[in-house]
């Protein structure tokens, strides 16, 4: 009689301790350029408005920032993802200029941000 | 704006969930927490200017600074200053059980109270967190008794000693106000 095949199933409840977000900043006025430091300051001020000094102190990193297209990749601890995302949603203005943040992709793995089906080019 | 919880593989643990799934045992009674705090000032005379409105605005402003719009809105759900004692500087704050930590952490950042146009530099010292006013009162009586016991060795003459001993013996829930008055008399003598 054959022994039943043994198998092992691994279930990850928390996939990764970091979450990565790909976002793009859109200004009402076309052609606005921003430096990476100002961009981070903008996000911190959005966090401060919504979550106070305690929220603004939460660590997050701007891994990549493209000045021309104003797109960036952010990294944040998984426990702070909801706070960061909600603060970005409610971000309305930068120095009296209207702006908005579009969140393109969110993933616990950085590799997943390298491509998405929207920008897929089939040859 | 409403914050919506996004679901994705992996469970997030954030300290204040916005949407809570309906559990089988519903606790519909609004639970509250009473924070028993003591206000410390450099000049005891300025304590007399203490009133509920000054404490209310100071705590609200501190929570708004420390926790932002989110914290200010959450903590102000049934937030009230229940009792202020201008003689001893004891304050009872009431808030929701789920969000009392927001207020508790913001108390440390209060540096001054604005009362009747005057700015009083002070600090807040949280002594006890209780579920009802009665438990806070019981703790306050025990705390005051301990304070009086500590004052006893430092009495300068026999009359003061007798007064303190009388105050300690009369400590009970009914005699709270009288015991506080006696403590205040002793403070004035000192």
UniProtKB/TrEMBL annotation, chain A:
<dbReference type="GO" id="GO:0001682">
    <property type="term" value="P:tRNA 5'-leader removal"/>
</dbReference>
<feature type="domain" description="Ribonucleases P/MRP subunit Pop8-like">
    <location>
        <begin position="17"/>
        <end position="89"/>
    </location>
</feature>
<dbReference type="GO" id="GO:0005730">
    <property type="term" value="C:nucleolus"/>
</dbReference>
<dbReference type="GO" id="GO:0030681">
    <property type="term" value="C:multimeric ribonuclease P complex"/>
</dbReference>
<dbReference type="InterPro" id="IPR049128">
    <property type="entry name" value="Pop8-like_dom"/>
</dbReference>
<dbReference type="InterPro" id="IPR038085">
    <property type="entry name" value="Rnp2-like_sf"/>
</dbReference>
<dbReference type="Pfam" id="PF20976">
    <property type="entry name" value="Pop8"/>
</dbReference>
<dbReference type="GO" id="GO:0033204">
    <property type="term" value="F:ribonuclease P RNA binding"/>
</dbReference>
<keyword id="KW-0819">tRNA processing</keyword>
<protein>
    <submittedName>
        <fullName>Ribonuclease P/MRP 14 subunit</fullName>
    </submittedName>
</protein>
UniProtKB/TrEMBL annotation, chain B:
<dbReference type="InterPro" id="IPR038085">
    <property type="entry name" value="Rnp2-like_sf"/>
</dbReference>
<dbReference type="GO" id="GO:0005730">
    <property type="term" value="C:nucleolus"/>
</dbReference>
<keyword id="KW-0539">Nucleus</keyword>
<comment type="function">
    <text>Component of ribonuclease P, a protein complex that generates mature tRNA molecules by cleaving their 5'-ends.</text>
</comment>
<dbReference type="InterPro" id="IPR016819">
    <property type="entry name" value="RNase_P/MRP_POP5"/>
</dbReference>
<dbReference type="Pfam" id="PF01900">
    <property type="entry name" value="RNase_P_Rpp14"/>
</dbReference>
<comment type="similarity">
    <text>Belongs to the eukaryotic/archaeal RNase P protein component 2 family.</text>
</comment>
<protein>
    <recommendedName>
        <fullName>Ribonuclease P/MRP protein subunit POP5</fullName>
    </recommendedName>
</protein>
<dbReference type="GO" id="GO:0001682">
    <property type="term" value="P:tRNA 5'-leader removal"/>
</dbReference>
<keyword id="KW-0819">tRNA processing</keyword>
<keyword id="KW-0698">rRNA processing</keyword>
<dbReference type="GO" id="GO:0033204">
    <property type="term" value="F:ribonuclease P RNA binding"/>
</dbReference>
<dbReference type="GO" id="GO:0006364">
    <property type="term" value="P:rRNA processing"/>
</dbReference>
<dbReference type="InterPro" id="IPR002759">
    <property type="entry name" value="Pop5/Rpp14/Rnp2-like"/>
</dbReference>
<dbReference type="GO" id="GO:0030677">
    <property type="term" value="C:ribonuclease P complex"/>
</dbReference>
């Amino acid at each position: 009689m054959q022994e039943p095949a043994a198998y092992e199933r691994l279930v990850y409840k928390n996939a990764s301790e970091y979450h990565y977000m790909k976002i793009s900043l859109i200004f009402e006025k076309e052609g606005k350029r921003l430096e990476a430091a100002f961009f981070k300051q903008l996000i911190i001020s959005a966090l401060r408005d919504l979550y106070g000094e305690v929220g603004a102190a939460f660590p997050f990193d701007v891994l990549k920032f493209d000045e021309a297209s104003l797109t960036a990749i952010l990294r944040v601890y998984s426990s702070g993802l909801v706070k960061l995302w909600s603060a970005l949603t409610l971000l309305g203005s930068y120095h009296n200029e209207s702006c908005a943040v579009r969140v393109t992709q969110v993933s616990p793995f950085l590799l997943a941000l390298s491509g998405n089906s929207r920008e897929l080019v089939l040859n | 704006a409403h914050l919506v919880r996004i679901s994705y593989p992996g469970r997030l643990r954030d300290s204040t969930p916005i949407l809570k799934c309906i559990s089988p045992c519903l606790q519909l009674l609004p639970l509250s927490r009473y924070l028993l705090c003591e206000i410390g000032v450099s000049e005891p005379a300025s304590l007399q200017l203490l009133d509920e409105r000054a404490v209310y605005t100071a705590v609200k402003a501190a929570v708004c600074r420390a926790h932002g719009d989110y914290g200010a809105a959450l903590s102000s759900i049934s937030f009230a200053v229940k009792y202020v004692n201008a003689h001893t500087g004891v304050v009872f704050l009431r808030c929701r059980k789920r969000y009392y930590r927001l207020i508790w952490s913001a108390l440390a950042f209060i540096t001054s109270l604005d009362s009747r146009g005057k700015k009083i530099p002070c600090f807040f010292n949280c002594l006890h967190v209780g579920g009802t006013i009665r438990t806070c009162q019981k703790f306050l009586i025990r705390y005051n008794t301990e304070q009086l016991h500590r004052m006893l060795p430092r009495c300068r003459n026999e009359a003061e000693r007798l007064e303190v001993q009388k105050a300690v013996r009369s400590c009970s829930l009914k005699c709270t106000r009288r015991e506080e008055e006696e403590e205040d008399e002793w403070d004035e003598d000192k």
